[in-house]
Amino acid sequence: MTYAEHFAKIIEDQIARVERLKSSPAMPDFSAMDKIVIGTIDGDGIGPIIMDSCRSILEKLLADEIAAGKIELRKIDGLTLENRIAKMETVPADVLAAIKECDLLLKGPTTTPGKGDDLPNIESANVTLRRELDLFANVRPVVIPEKNIDWIFYRENTEGEYALGSRVIYINDDISIDFKVTTTIGTTRLARAAFEYAKNNGNKNVSIVTKANIMKKTDGKFLSLCYDVARDYPDIKTDDWYVDIMAANLVNDQINSNFNVVILPNLYGDIITDEAAQLQGGVGTAGSANIGSRYAMFEAIHGSAPRMMEEGIGEYANPASINRAAVMMLRHIGMTDSAARLEAALDAAQEALDMPGDGTGNTAAEFTDFVLGRL
Ligand code: NAD
């Protein structure tokens, strides 16, 4: 295939994707469903440790709903690096089929081999799942009460620099080119979700983050589409920032409590939300939701922490992250009382326990016992 043919194919695929998006299904009405199936996936590294914690906590918290058949926790095996490499599939077909039979997913982190890992070049399972399940919004709350900080980030999850994964054009050893994709439908539905959240939570301020002065076509489009959506919410104060100054704003105590809802394209959202989570107390404390119109996936914001496993201190992984994600999941399906109970128990655990993740302090098992004791 020539460069021109390869490039034409990429463009045709994106046009076809946008046409598919136009017929996306409506979000399910969880309150009207007889049964909600929650798939649980261990993942790699510390994944099985934190997922065991989350499963046993949910089994106690939702014991009545599980006994009545309203909720099923269904373990899905096979989303491990070993199995993915053995099959040379980013998400093996049988695993993807099992995932699609669930309504929601709680997922442990999965390892993506990097350059120099001496492993086959296999794409990120998350990027594939977000694309396959069309999980367009990555939602990450960060709350720091003592600084009056109450942020929630809406990161675009399927486009930008991540849209094409490894399908880039290899030119030669001297030149590398990646692609960035912004679509009207992809941006508008994300902005709509963020403004709806802002409206339903007391007209919080909305800030749009881009680098539209440099990435004029893609970020410029993202920015102007977000302002188009903002016109439908005249009571909400909306402003915009370049990503570099936003990174500084978050650590500027003079102004950081002014921000509430933040909308970002994919790559900037990836970076800024880790910075924000660190301010909250580390990536081990933060959960996130990946919301689509048919499916939703909830996970920790951190990765599989391979170094913790290599050093033999995996049992010290903090399971707060995935359990915070479970709180978001319960709210997503309208189980607000259960969500509040779990959140209170997690707040108490965070207050009482010391989990730096360096092999000192409390273990994941102690964390789980503490939370189970509070439920
Ligand atoms: P990481 O998030 O795994 O680790 C970053 C740091 O945070 C490390 O010091 C680690 O020890 C610490 N940490 C992470 N989770 C913790 C927890 N629960 N408790 C205490 N400390 C914790 O980031 P990384 O090393 O850049 O990535 C490792 C692998 O994870 C890579 O293969 C990456 O691609 C993958 N990853 C997966 C996901 C996902 O599946 N959603 C997200 C990010 C990274």
Task: Give your account of this protein's structure.
The protein has 375 residues and is α/β, with parallel strands linked by helices. It contains 14 helices and twelve strands. Strands 2-1-3-12-11-4-5-10-8-9 form a ten-stranded mixed sheet, sandwiched between helices. The protein has a two-stranded antiparallel ribbon with strand order 6-7. α2 (47-61) runs parallel beside α14 (364-374) and α13 (336-352) crosses α14 (364-374). The radius of gyration is 21 Å and the shape is globular. The N and C termini lie far apart (60 Å). Residues 46, 50, 109-112, 126, 283-284, 299, 302-308, 317-318, 321, 357 line the site of nicotinamide-adenine-dinucleotide (NAD).
Question: Strands, helices and their partners?
Answer:
Elements: H1 3-21, E1 36-41, H2 47-61, H3 63-67, E2 71-75, H4 81-87, H5 93-100, E3 104-107, H6 125-132, E4 137-144, E5 149-156, E6 170-172, E7 175-176, H7 184-200, E8 206-210, H8 218-230, E9 238-242, H9 243-249, E10 261-264, H10 266-280, E11 287-291, E12 296-300, H11 306-310, H12 320-332, H13 336-352, H14 364-374
Parallel strand pairs: 1-2, 1-3, 3-12, 5-10, 8-9, 8-10
Antiparallel strand pairs: 4-5, 4-11, 6-7, 11-12
Helix pairs in contact: 2-12, 2-14, 7-8, 12-13, 13-14
Bound molecules: nicotinamide-adenine-dinucleotide (NAD).
Nicotinamide-adenine-dinucleotide is lined by residues 46, 50, 109-112, 126, 283-284, 299, 302-308, 317-318, 321, 357.
